[in-house]
Amino acid sequence: MVTPSGLTLKFVLQGWAANNSRRSEGIAFLAQDPATARARIEAFKDKTHRILICPLLDWSWSDIANEVAGVVTDHGTRVSRGSEVSGIVQVAAVLGTREATAKIKDGDYVQIICEGNEALAKIFEPIKNVSGIKET
C-alpha cells in the first residue's frame, strides 16, 4: 500500500487487528448507529472504497460491514464481537482506538494496516470533491 500522492498525513491511530495481514483504504464516513450508517451508505455511488468509522462493531452492524472496505472503531479487542463480525465478513478492521469517532472526519482518506495483533489507521487530509458524503 502506497501513500496516496498529494495527501498529507494528519495522524495515526493504533488499535487491535481483527484480521491478521489485512489492508484496506478508502474515504471515511462516520455513523453512530447501524440505522444512520445504512441511510448514509445508500447515498454512496462506490461503497467498496468507504471506511466506516463507528463507536463499536457488533452483529447489528454486520450488513453494513459487509459493504465497506474497512472499519475503525472506538471500542473492541481481538476477542470482541467486532472481531467476530469483521472476520466473518472479511473486512479489514482496527478495533479499540478509543478516539476514532472524535478525531476522524467525514471525507478523510484512511489506510488500514493490520499486522499480527496490532493495527494502524493512517488518517490523511480529505480528498477534494468527494461525492455522496452528507453531514450528520
What does this structure look like?
By secondary structure, the chain is of the alpha/beta class. The protein has a single domain, classed as Glucose Oxidase, domain 1. It is built from four helices and seven strands; from the N terminus they run ββαβαβαβαββ. The chain has helices at residues 34-42, 62-65, 81-89, 100-103, and strands at residues 9-17, 23-30, 50-54, 70-73, 92-95, 109-115, 118-124. Strands 1-5-4-3-2-6-7 form a seven-stranded mixed beta barrel. β6 and β7 form a beta hairpin. It is globular, with a radius of gyration of 13 Å. Mean pLDDT is 87; it is low at 130-136.
Would you kindly provide a brief summary of this structure?
By secondary structure, the protein is α/β, with parallel strands linked by helices. It has helices at 34-42, 62-65, 81-89, 100-103, and strands at residues 9-17, 23-30, 50-54, 70-73, 92-95, 109-115, 118-124.
Which terms summarize this structure?
alpha/beta, disordered C terminus, globular, 4 helices, seven-stranded mixed β-barrel
Amino-to-carboxy terminus distance: 30 Å
Average residue-wise pLDDT: 87
Instruction: Give the topology string: H per helix, E per strand.
Output: EEHEHEHEHEE
Number of helices: 4
Q: Would you state the CATH class?
A: Alpha Beta
> How big a fraction of the residues is strand?
25-35%
Largest sheet: 7 strands, mixed, barrel
Low-confidence stretches: 130-136
Which CATH architecture? 3-Layer(bba) Sandwich
